[in-house]
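Quick one: Epoxyqueuosine reductase from Agarivorans albus MKT 106, structure tokens please.
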Amino acid sequence: MSLLSEIDLKQLVQHIKLTAKSLGFQQIGITDVDLSQHHQDVEQWLAKNYHGEMDYLARNLELRKHPEQLHEGTQRIISVRMDYLPEDAKFAQSLSASDQAYISRYALGRDYHKLMRKRLNQLGKSINDYCQQQLNMRPFVDSAPVMERQLATKAGLGWTGKHSLIINQDAGSWFFLGELFVDLPLPIDQPVDEQCGDCVACITICPTQAIVEPYQVDARRCISYLTIEYDGIIEEELRPLMGNRIYGCDDCQLTCPWNRYAQLTQEADFAAREQLDQPTLLALFAWTEEEFLKKTEGSPIRRIGYQQWLRNIAIALGNAAYSQQAIDELSAKQGLEAVAQHHVNWAIEQQQNKAAKASRKTARLIRIIEKGLTRDA
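--- reply ---
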């Protein structure tokens, strides 16, 4: 009889959950590898081209649908949750200030991928030590074709909200997900009931109406997709709706009533970097490529690259209140590639239109005042 067969799996699960908590995971759940109940939904979503240009989602569909093929021998998946909401996040304050940049709360601090993967590796080592043998395990954090949200719901971490994100009744939705694939027949956790009810706040507030129906997001209209995943020319009709959001969008989470229960992160790495804490659009647009690379080192923002960064800020500047400085800075920017230049030109035009409108308004006021003075005379 092997040592593993002598281990009480229920006690092992308790060890895993206690260890996970000590490593900074707020919650873990365990599920099997059967995702057949989600296959049709994923296939239909892809058939509607809601994934935009994220071709990788369709390329590895079979691996997504069958986790045991992604990592051979997998019997169970340990799904983990780590809160990321930084202290003094200021939530939507910068959305109302058109000269400031709004950056999604998850991207204000250090990139979560390496941190969570390291912790998952540590969790795996702890399991090996407990079992006194080398088991077949592999961690994943947004790094492979894994249906992480579907796995999280099966593992009982929460339910899928109408915005398609996972909601936990005790923690809202401000958290990252990660997985540890294991070749152990661990007892599994049960899913929880959905508790969104008749609420449609996330659907109503979406600036671009990307939530086309409950649980269905058309990425091609989603500001997070447009500012992060998509590097081309953004449709002109969508640009004004993006406001000052230059990296991601949190509106659907900001309005969700379950986020009143959200917990602040205990991870110092997720705290907002000084240069990203309520910065002005012009200050960020003034960065050189060297400054961009230096100031976003270790940040998820860095992966979009300097030109896309400038494209996003240019759109926000076009949506901002009139500023002659904005026109001057946009006009003076050098070294732009075609896509970024296209959006800079659009932003200049928007600013010039606002200047002309302001001049016409001023002229009308002057005429009204002059007429009033003439009558009084």
